[in-house]
Design brief:
By secondary structure, the protein is α/β, with parallel strands linked by helices. The protein is 41% helix and 12% strand. Strand 9, helix 7 (206-222) and strand 10 (233-235) form a beta-alpha-beta unit. Helix 3 (88-102) packs across helix 5 and helix 6 runs parallel beside helix 7.
Length: 405
Amino acid sequence: MQFGIFTVGDVTTDPTTGRTPDDTERVRAMLTIAKHADEAGLDVFATGEHHNPPFVPSSPTTMLGYLAGVTKDIVLSTSTTLITTNDPVRLAEEYAMLQVITDGRMDLMMGRGNTGPVYPWFGQDIRNGIPLAIENYALLRRLWTEDVVDWEGKFRTPLQGFTSTPRPLDGVPPFVWHGSIRSPEIAEQAAYYGDGFFHNNIFWPMSHTRQMVQFYRQRWEHHGHGPADTAIVGLGGQVFLRKDSQKAWDEFRPYFDNAPVYGHGPSMEDFTRETPLTVGSPQQVIDRYGAMREDVGDYQRQLFLMDHAGLPLKTVLEQIDLLAGEVVPVLRREAEAARPAHVPSGPPTHVERVAAARAAGETHAAHVGATEDRWTGRTAEDDDADDAAGVSTQQPARAGTAFGL
């Protein structure tokens, strides 16, 4: 199982000092956090994508491309890539380039974002959010899996004889997650393509998260990708850790009470009771998050939000050390002990996807050939394309929309 952190990149005043970092300081802090997470032994660093204050990560591929050169092992990902307001042609090019630069040590998460005004800023209508996500992703898949694309749709100009460059590494596209909080259409999309489904899980009770994940698992099996319990699931979460639980509560309370997202709303007591936010000792976090597989089944990725609400960089780095040193080893051991042998322990790596695609005959010979890893010397095998060749641009009829959401 993979464990890591994700950031929304908010610029927030520290309520205990009244100090607000500027954009440059916040971006550099995010880079420091990612490098520290890698050094601490976490598996994933993921950044969001925003185009409005108070958030700074407007260019995820720029940040992740830099981090590819200064980190060693950590998987570099997005926690949101805006499939609705980005041109799928640019997404195909930018993330294939990132895949080449990282030598496959990356994946990405498609999402619609949570900022309504971003749609008109990029020439779109928020009322088309779901149709945009469906059409744009269908085109993106074709751009990655077909060398020459002729295409016509509703939301962008047609393509004639278009080839996206660079081509995906070893002829195999990056692994894709679809992130959603409350839209069954997005869970259906992930299941249809055999992609991963990530439930943000930071503002909702586990009963809601369980419902969404179960729906995705059912649809995964319906579309022929395997038993429901083999579907690739990720969850978000929030924690604040100290060795002493009361110290954790006392230290985090002013940040919670003044946070732009949930400050001046529910009390911290109510919020920690009703959502996965856990403030306390490492053992309390272990107990809370170790029990989540009882609600959603064995899952493959757990990401934590830790650098928000104005927390100082020093505090965030301390949080990462506690998480990586005292929480993750126990959660990883418990998850592996409970996981049935046929259930994947993590999302598929690039090497595994290349091996599966080669076995299925779905990679292009020109890309596969000798796939010795350029930078590490390991031998790359081939890919698990889950429908990566010849997928239709039309989404099947939606099922399960009587979801109560």
